[in-house]
C-alpha cells in the first residue's frame, strides 16, 4: 500500500471541494518529527494563496470536506496552515496484517506503463569495465522496481555494435582466423582491440583492407556481416557471463544495439533536412540549437551526418528515441549513462522533439551517474593505471569475502559458505554503488563495503538472517502465526508504520531512478527493527503479544528480503 498516495488523493479531493483548482497538489510528505504526526500536507498554503484566502481558514475548510474515517486518529492544523496527520493504530495494524498475507507485501499494481530502460550498454570487442558497472546495476535495480509495481518494462541494452572501428576489427579477426588463433586469444577482448588498432596504425595494407571492410559492411556485404556478427557474439557471451555473476536480469534477447537503428538513419537525416532543422555546413549536416551555446555564445551545432556520409552517436540516439515511442509504444524511455553524456542526450532529445518525432507526453529521461573513484579520489584504475576489468573486480570481491566469512563464521559447511561468500561479495560491490545518490562520484572502498556495520550489504544481509534465526532457533514456522497484530507499544507502532512505507520508497525508485532511496529505507527499517527488538521481548511475551510481535518480525524479514531482491542483492538464511 502507498499511504502517501491514499492521503494525497483524499486531501486533494477535499481541497477541490473547498474551492481549489482541479490540478491542485496536496503535497503530502512523511513527517520528520513525531509531534507533527505521521504525515503532513504542505500544499494548503500554496492553494490558499492562489485563491486569495487565509491559509488557516482554508485548511479548516479542507478538513470540513475531508473524510479520513478509519484511517486517521487525529488531524491538526499547524503553523501557517499545514495539516498534520496522525494515523490510526488499528488501521496500521490491519494493513500490516494484509501486507503479511499478501504475495507482494500489499503492493498495489497501480502503475502500468510501458517503460524502455536503456542500461548497461557496453561496447563490442571491448571488455566491460567498471564504468559499465554503474549503468548495469543501477539500471537493473530500477528495472526490478518498475516491474514489481506492475509496469511493462522493455530492457534495451544499447550495445555499441556499429561504427568505423568494425573495419579494423573484422580485418583483424580474419587475420587471426587465418593464423588459427585459439578461442583463448579471443577471450581477451581488450588485447584483441589493442592489437587490431596497432595493426591499423602501423600496417598500411591492413589499414586499406580495414577501410574497405567498413564500406562493405555498411553496404550489407555478407562476408563482412558474418564476421561482424561473430564479434558481437563473442563479446555478448562474455558480457552475459558478467550479468549472471552480478545477478542482473539482462539476457541475450535484450540487446538492442546501435546497429538496430542504422537502417533508419538516412531517412531521419533527410527528414531533418527537409524540415529545415539540419543544414549543410562544410559538407556535413548540422542542426543548430539556440538552447545550447558554443564558446563564442552562438547556437551550438550538432552534427547529424559527417562529410563522408557517416552518421553519429547523436543521430542514433534520435532514431532510438523515435523508435521507442513509435514502434515500442513506450510511455517513458530511461537511459542510464555517465554524466559526461548528459549534454549529448539532451541535444539528441531536443532535436527529436523539434522534429516532432515524439509528443510532449512521452517522457525521455537521462538518469546520469558520476564516476567511480579510487581511495585517492582519482578515477578508479588498476595499480598500473589501466582500466579495471569488471571480471577482475568481482574475483577480488569473492577473495575478500572468503576471508571475511571464514573469520566471522568458521562453522558453516562448505556449501553454506560458498553461498554466503557469493551473496556477500557481489552484494557488497552492488550495494556500495546502489546506496549512493547516483549523481555524485563515489569512492570505491573495499573495507567500507565489506563492513558489517553501517549501510552496507553485509549489514543488511546479516540483519535479515538474525530475524530469520529468531524463528529457526525457536522452531516456529512464520507462516503459521495466529491472532492479530497489536500495536500497543510505541516501538511496535513505529515499526508497523515503517513497514507500510515500503511501497512509497519503491515508487520513488521507479519514478526517479534512484535505488539509493530504497537502500536508505531498508537501512532505516533494520535500525527500527533493532530498537523494537531491544524494547519489546518476543519469545517471553504473553502468547497473543508474542504472536503479534512474531508477525511484525516476519513482515520485517520479508520486506528486507524483497527490498534487497529489488536491488538485485541475494539474502541467505544463515551467515
Ligand atoms: N555504449 C555507450 C558507452 O559505452 C553507452 C550507451 C548509452 N545509451 C544511449 N542510448 N546512448 O558509453
Automatic annotation (TrEMBL):
Keywords: Aminoacyl-tRNA synthetase, ATP-binding, Cytoplasm, Ligase, Nucleotide-binding, Protein biosynthesis. A motif ('HIGH' region) lies at residues 122-132. Its main location: cytoplasm. Its EC number is 6.1.1.19. Pfam families: Arg_tRNA_synt_N (PF03485), DALR_1 (PF05746), tRNA-synt_1d (PF00750). It is found in: Cytoplasm. SMART domains: Arg_tRNA_synt_N, DALR_1. It catalyses: tRNA(Arg) + L-arginine + ATP = L-arginyl-tRNA(Arg) + AMP + diphosphate. It is an enzyme of class 6 (ligase). Residues 460-575 form the DALR anticodon binding domain. One of its GO terms (cellular component) is cytoplasm. GO terms for biological process: arginyl-tRNA aminoacylation. One of its GO terms (molecular function) is arginine-tRNA ligase activity. Residues 1-87 form the Arginyl tRNA synthetase N-terminal domain. It comes from the Bacteria. Monomer. Belongs to the class-I aminoacyl-tRNA synthetase family. This is Arginine--tRNA ligase. It comes from Ursidibacter maritimus. The lineage of its organism: Bacteria, Pseudomonadati, Pseudomonadota, Gammaproteobacteria, Pasteurellales. The gene is argS.
